[in-house]
Here is the input.
Amino acid sequence: MKMAVDLLENSPFKNFFIPGIMLLVFNGVFSLISAFLLLIHYRYAGIGVMFLGGVMIIWIVAQVFWLGWISWLQPTFLALGVFELIVGLYLDSQNNIGLFSGRHHGSHAH
Here is the structure.
């Protein structure tokens, strides 16, 4: 993919190397890890999905801040990040811990 480096003139980056590495790690490697955790039914997989949704939202907001709205893919991936966050919340509420579901397990002092 060939993109003009001029797009980055208002960003903290001089070229696409660092943003590319960040995309590879967060949207690539971490997504594969999260998918694996979901496949093995790891109890905290929902939190990983929420994290990835948050990363996607932050990435797109930062991109729009520095580059502006330059593609229909930006709102699409922003919506995908919100959806991923919601799915993560749902998955977390379905496990026995429910860290973000409001359910508390264990003993309570009375």
